[in-house]
Amino acid sequence: MEQVDNKSEKSSKGESSNDISNGSLKDGQVIDEKYAGTDVYDVQPTYDITATENHFGETIVINNAQEVVTHVLHVDDDPTLNPWTFRAFFLGCGLAIFASVLQEIYYFKPQVIYVSVVFLTVVGYVLGEAMAFIIPRRGAVGRFLNPGPFNSKEHATIVITASAAATAAVATEILAAQKLYYNMDPSPAAAVFLVISSQLLGYGIAGLLRSVLVQPTKMLWPINIPVNALLETLHRDKKETKLRLKIFYVLFAFMFVYEIVPEYMFPLLQGVSIFCLAKQNSLLWTNLFGGSQGNEGLGFLSISFDWQYIASLGSPLWLPLQTLTSSMIGYLLCIVVFMAVYYGNIWQSKDFPFLSQLLYDASSNSTSFVPYDLSQILTPANEINSTALQENGVPYLTGTYIAYLITTNMGITATIVHMFLWDFDNIKAGWAFLTPANLKKLKEPSFWKFWKGGRTKEDRKVAALADKTVDPHYKLMMANGYDEVPNWWYAAVLVFSVAVGLGTLYGVKSTLPWWGYIIANIFAALFILFFGAQFGITGFQFNQQPVIQMVAGYLHPGKPLANMYFTVFGFNGVQQGQLLLRDLKLAQLAHLSPKCTFTAQLLGCVIGAIFNYIMMKSIVTNQATILTSIVGSNTWSGQNVQQYNTLAIAWSIAGEMFSIGARYQWVTISYLTGFIVPFPFWLAYRYTKIEFFRYVNLAIILWYMGWLFVGVNSSITSYFALGFIAQWYLRKYHPNLFVKYNYLVSAALDGGTQVIVFILSFAVFGGGGKVVAFPTWAGNNGGFANNKNVDYCMFNPAN
Which residue among 408, 545, 617, 782 has the highest number of C-beta atoms inside a 10 angstrom radius? Predict the structure, then answer.
């Protein structure tokens, strides 16, 4: 550990910690242009990365990705640290089980909360240090179990393994829907293989696109910066990080204790609405200002003191200011649109709940909401009976849900156009394998002998060091001789997942034909490129589920199950692929060996799939009544399964609901209008060079215009307030504090909150089967269980 500490001290002063023996690329030295773009270069330069790229801690107003990765993080490395230890994989697997179970629990909450990678980092560190301290190092067994001090590479391996498992696979969503709405329960073996294949599909595609979506500096993946900052703080020279560590531990401990108050003892703090406290008998007030329970209201001007909900979709402290600005514009427009749709009674909105994801019967009215009886229109094979549909009538959706579908659909096509207009080089690089020169290689026998030939380690090193767009951390890894993973490894994972998924579809009686399955996989590959690039650059993750279900609806009319299974691969593949790309970047910034990263992610995906299924079965069995209700409770909710099933049914009868001339035709037309949306701002910037037109992302604005259609909305005001304080005020006026502490504070708040929330989920919220309610008092009125809203807004008795 002394070697690492000494290097840390040098790098903090801007000195080199890497002795690269082959020389250095001198100022002004240029690689011969005739070799650009080829596999091998004519010169053999190396690059003293730390001398030129490491600016850690320097006071600067950070304005781009390059400055983030060189000023917030150290650009130095000790390649002698070993991640391949029993400790790393034992704790990685253990935390993978823990994270997959926790995320599946969160999936059935009123507000979906994502297991923070920071949380996993903190737990992994505590356990790793404990094993290093407790286990004796005597003898061969002792040295195997405890090879030495717990190092940063082991820690990164643990985090990557656990993070790969920390998802709620969409495949478990369809398995829950089958159990709750279709009285189907596939065998455990078939179900587990279904989940595994859907998770690995995204991994295979993501790995093949890593040179485009991970290695460039521009692909910052800002969500990772708090995690990498924390990893560095925990493992570097303690003299250098003493104050940073102290701040982290104090804030972590504070949040661990404090979150018990809003989460359990004083839930009113989840969303304090002055307007509802002043006027408790108005449904208008509830719809506009309420929002502390699922599907309650828009939460306008509510103040939340609960970090779990404030940071439910990611801490506002790390979201880039440009993304934050576009998000807030969309959020404010969402309030205007939703209120206009409902109180303008568009699509008979007042006959149905203000916010809901269910299908409703035409007999509903403002005082009685009648869910649509799906059993009346389904055949024994779970397909739509056209005659019964005509007899029972076409179901209705809430007006706000339709508004969400319209703005989201516009945002999806707008994102594709936006990426072509503003980031065409990234998109083009993703399809470089289709160039005529590369296609000619298909005819060569050597191309198919993937185990032979290819670029050498030295070739990759030279190419990376010469490319100005490549992340300096990746350059450092290549300079230090790390082995890259061959592309055929990822291709093998992709082929395996496709084969297993195809066989499983027939085993679970999915009703999805083989050709539909292939089309779903093609959509996954296309969308990972477009939306992965957007996520990597902006930190914003788009929900592609509605467009995938729309495509499935027109390809497989009258087959809701086929629709859902099409979505499992077309949508889940995209989501999982984006998350694994995020973790590939995390590993790159942590300088973890690519082959170790590959192993850890593959292991995490498989473990996560198995335990996702186990936890889903437990929750659906024990909480079925709550999961099928309109609003659920403040502990459990089936809103995500309801939404999934609702869209599957609705798009299965797309001709009657969404096609041109149908009641909700604008849901389909919106895809076409989305293609047009980005052009005015792009043209305006091109001819005026006014920065505003480049700064605002209309695709993000459109998505946020439907943001409030579901869940707990009382935390949004606090979310934006804290985000602008960090990303505008601190970053601009106190850059030293921002660089050193902003991302670390975000990590501490996330970590302390999620540790205690996990404990409370099992101790008192019913994760273990039994709910222990806190006594009722003014700060805890019992919520939905007592026909009340937690924030004292008027409760709608029709719910």
Answer: 408
The two tokens of residue 124 are: 């992994």
Q: What is the dihedral of CA 332, 335, 337, 343, to 10 degrees?
A: -150
Spatial separation of the C-alpha atoms in residues 631 and 399, rounded to whole Å: 17
Percentage of the chain beyond pLDDT 70 is: 84
Buried b (16+ CB within 10 A) or exposed e, 253-270: eebbebbbebbbebbbbb
Measured between alpha carbons, how far is 98 from 291 in angstroms, rounded to an integer? 30
For 344, residues 6+ apart whose C-beta sits below 8 A from its C-beta are none
- The pLDDT assigned to 40 comes to 31
Per-residue pLDDT of 476-518, as tens digits, reads: 888 888 888 888 899 899 999 999 999 888 888 888 899 999 9
C-alpha 501/C-alpha 570 separation (Å) is: 12
What's the rounded Cα separation, in Å, for the pair 743 and 221? 13
Using CA atoms, how far apart are residues 148 and 160, in angstroms rounded to an integer? 21
Q: How many Å apart are CA 21 and CA 47, to the nearest integer?
A: 10
> Count of CB atoms within 10 A of residue 736's CB?
12
Cα separations in angstroms, 55 against 49, 51, 675: 11, 9, 41
Q: Is the pLDDT of residue 39 over 70?
A: no
d(CA 48, CA 31): 16
Between the alpha carbon of residue 795 and those of residues 283, 301, 349, the distances in Å are: 7, 19, 18
